[in-house]
């Protein structure tokens, strides 16, 4: 079963990182959002430093949603999804494997790119550290909540829009506590630990609930 | 081991495709499903693969080592080849070997041997995108060989295959049946699959004339 899980992770990673896989798209989108913001807001460094964490989080959140609509839809269209039901690997774990591969290919690069992009928004070192930590903990939550939307997108064929509509509201708490924790790190009334622990809890919850809900949607759609 | 199908009915949307369908496929036998287009051959095979549930009736694999895990006893080859075009042929096949293979895969072929067996020896490194339709179908057939499963459910297995590949497929199928495997195939091609029976699904069709159903679907 572990072999099947790892095989699925490996294949999805190879597909995402290979030519035309679209893993780089999220990072480019993230880069575009962050680079454009200082031009739109103007050269007020204090203002940029204050809203910087929020801009970076919004960019990372939207970038994490890119590509989710094709996650299961591509497998449904070429018949792979049917065969995944024939494996001893439970559908929940198959969904989790695909989510893990998707996060490694699109979420992790965002975390790596964030410190560099933080410099553009005049973030101080403490804020950069806190931001990377919150992104590392928070982006898996976005991806795994997104699995539910991805499963619906596969069920309804042309469901690309569904992902954004279904998943965005679910990710709002992640955004709130991610930005709050980063803000707390650079001074505020609450200590960093309080919102960060809630963020970690949201992430752990999503890691469990996302694949289970996605598997339920895929099963319902198969009939 | 035998596949026992009792009083199965199938419905697609508002239309009933067939009802009261029952048959038994014992080990070492093949069943060839025939019938006109739209009669429900593919729907029947999806039921037999465990990918859909019948409206009524039961489908069981009697004498299977793990009766609860029905789908894990079944190889399903549908219309879609389930290849990832960007990956190489052997990467595709290796992935399915890992995903579909159980703990005990002693008798199953290795990836290179399976490619050799379907006549794709030496092409394993090529991305599937550059293979022809027939070669893609051969690669899909190779999936049946890299993991051992007793029941093969094949939907038009010889689509896009040339005469030699059809003969090669028939030989593989006969070998599977002779080893005591079970096989259900829907096909229009005259294939020698060894000791086999045939089932004309048109005879079990629900009483709606096909023309009426067709116009109904177009209208809706």
Question: Describe it for me?
Answer:
The complex is a heterodimer of chains A (223) and B (220). Chain A is an all-alpha fold and 223 residues long. Chain A has helices at 2-17, 23-41, 45-65, 73-78, 80-85, 91-120, 125-155, 160-185, 193-222. Chain A is built from nine helices and no strands. Chain A is elongated. Chain B is an alpha/beta fold. Chain B has one domain (2-206): Rossmann fold (3-Layer(aba) Sandwich), CATH 3.40.50. Chain B has helices at residues 41-49, 89-100, 111-117, 133-146, 163-178, 210-219, and strands at 2-12, 15-26, 29-34, 56-62, 74-77, 151-155, 182-186, 196-200. In chain B, helix 5 links the parallel strand 6 (151-155) and strand 7 (182-186). Chain B is globular. Chain B starts with a strand and ends with a helix.
Give the CATH architecture of chain B.
Answer: 3-Layer(aba) Sandwich
Order of helices and strands of chain A: HHHHHHHHH
Strand order of the largest sheet of chain B: 5-6-7-3-8
Write the CATH homologous superfamily of chain B. P-loop containing nucleotide triphosphate hydrolases
In what range is the share of β-strand residues of chain A?
under 5%
CATH topology of chain B: Rossmann fold
- Number of discrete helical segments of chain B: 6
Mean pLDDT of chain A equals 89
Helix content of chain B: 25-40%
Mean pLDDT of chain B: 83
Structural class of chain B: alpha/beta
């Amino acid at each position: 079963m572990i072999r099947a899980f790892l095989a699925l992770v490996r294949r999805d990673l190879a597909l995402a990182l290979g030519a035309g896989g679209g893993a780089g798209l999220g990072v480019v989108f993230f880069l575009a959002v962050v680079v454009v913001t200082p031009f739109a807001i103007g050269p007020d460094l204090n203002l940029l430093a204050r809203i910087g964490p929020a801009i970076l989080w919004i960019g990372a959140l939207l970038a994490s949603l890119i590509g989710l609509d094709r996650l299961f839809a591509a497998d449904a269209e070429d018949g792979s999804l049917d065969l995944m039901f024939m494996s001893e690997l439970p559908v929940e774990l198959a969904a989790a494997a695909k989510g893990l591969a998707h996060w490694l290919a699109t979420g992790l690069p965002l975390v790596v790119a964030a410190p560099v992009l933080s410099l553009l928004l005049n973030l101080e070192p403490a804020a950069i550290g806190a931001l990377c930590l919150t992104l590392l903990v928070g982006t898996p939550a976005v991806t795994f909540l997104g699995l539910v939307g991805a499963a619906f997108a596969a069920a309804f064929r042309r469901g690309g829009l569904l992902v954004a509509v279904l998943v965005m509201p679910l990710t709002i708490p992640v955004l709130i506590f991610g930005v709050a924790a980063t803000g707390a790190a650079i001074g505020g009334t609450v200590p960093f630990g309080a919102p960060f622990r809630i963020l970690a809890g949201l992430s752990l919850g999503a890691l469990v609930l996302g694949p289970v809900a996605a598997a339920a949607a895929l099963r319902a759609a198969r009939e | 081991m035998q596949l026992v199908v009792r009083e199965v009915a199938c419905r697609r949307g508002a239309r009933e495709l067939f009802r009261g369908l029952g048959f038994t496929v014992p080990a070492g036998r093949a069943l060839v499903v025939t019938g006109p287009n739209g009669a429900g051959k593919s729907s029947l095979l999806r039921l037999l693969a465990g990918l859909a549930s019948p409206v009524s009736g039961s489908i069981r694999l009697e004498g299977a080592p793990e009766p609860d895990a029905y789908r894990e006893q079944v190889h399903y080859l549908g219309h879609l080849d389930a290849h990832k075009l960007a990956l190489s042929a052997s990467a595709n096949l290796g992935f399915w070997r890992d995903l579909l293979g159980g703990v005990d895969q002693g008798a199953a072929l290795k990836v290179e041997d399976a490619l050799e067996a379907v006549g794709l020896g030496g092409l394993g490194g090529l991305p599937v995108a550059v293979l022809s339709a027939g070669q893609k179908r051969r690669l899909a057939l190779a999936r049946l060989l890299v993991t051992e499963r007793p029941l093969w459910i094949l939907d038009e297995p010889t689509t896009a295959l040339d005469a030699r590949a059809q003969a090669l497929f028939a030989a593989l199928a006969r070998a599977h049946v002779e080893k005591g495997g079970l096989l259900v195939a829907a096909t229009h091609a005259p294939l020698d699959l060894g000791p086999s029976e045939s089932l004309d699904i048109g005879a079990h069709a629900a009483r709606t004339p096909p023309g009426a159903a067709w116009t109904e679907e177009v209208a809706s």
